[in-house]
Amino acid sequence: MHADLRHRIALTMVPTIGPVLQKKLLEHFSNPADIFKASKTALCQIDGIGEWTASNIKGWNDFKRVDEEMNFIQKHAIQPLMIGDHFYPTRLMNCYDAPTLLYYKGNALLNETRIISIIGTRTNSHYGRSVTEKLIEQLPSNTTVISGLAFGIDAIAHRAALKNKQNTIGVLAHGLDNLYPRAHRSLAKEMIEQGGLLTEFNRNTPTDKYNFPRRNRIVAGMSDATVVIETAVKGGSMITADLAFHYNRELFAVPGKINDPKSSGCLKLIQENKAILFSSPEHLLETLNWSAKKDPFKKHLELFESLNHEEKILIELLQKESSISMEELLIKTGFNAGKMAGIILNLELQQMIQVIPGKKIALA
Description:
This protein is 47% helix and 14% strand. The chain is an alpha/beta fold.
């Protein structure tokens, strides 16, 4: 293991020192061990470190707990990720409050080309389930799906990703010695084989309500985009959405019925111009520039195959001639004027033909 790991873990255990102050200390001292050797006066000279915080650092000496943590990591093949490491999520590093240390168990890359967070209510509707599953079905195969392993939309997203052979990562609000909710133990086991579990919390961390907003910032920060499927105006999903917005990530919200409490949060995000209205998976992929580029010949072939018999006759005629008048079309096809007008209108709407000067018809 990394020589600095012991004191990095220790730093995360000192009371009143969050990730922002941890980063300041790690930037100031060349070696994490020097933080604990420094005098109180030297610590107080660092911006944000007052006497109380300096006293907490000087008074902390529970290295037995640190050693137990390191033994646990080694025993269960958990990968510690220190900020700045090669495998640490680079997107997360751009967040001012990024964790200085993460614990990871899994086989998926945390710096995959495409990463999307999908979140929502624990009490989803059939509509929410359907939107989640259809979105994941249409994501590019190398997209990693992130969520919080909670009931509802989170679990639906994880399961849909597994079904579609996509990596999926659950971000936890507790240590890797525990799993909440316990009903998702088998799901978590599958995810370790096709994705992973990630947390900033040490073992024996209780499942405290204050840990969930901290978990949510990782969900928002390590993704290219966050999609809110269903949520009330208050709740964890809205916290995650707000974090994604302030981290300058793309944020999408699925609209719903105006009188449905499960859609009220999504509608609020759209109304406040924080979130892009999610209208379809195709729209999301285009916005993120994730759309797979189609072969132009294949695209035209697909369009041609979708036409009816009369429309195909007209297209085949236009393929032989650069342009043709309405009168010639009527003679060569044998269609009456009313039918021909309808065919031309439909093909124009599909942008397959165009009317050019001289009132002639040509392929678009």
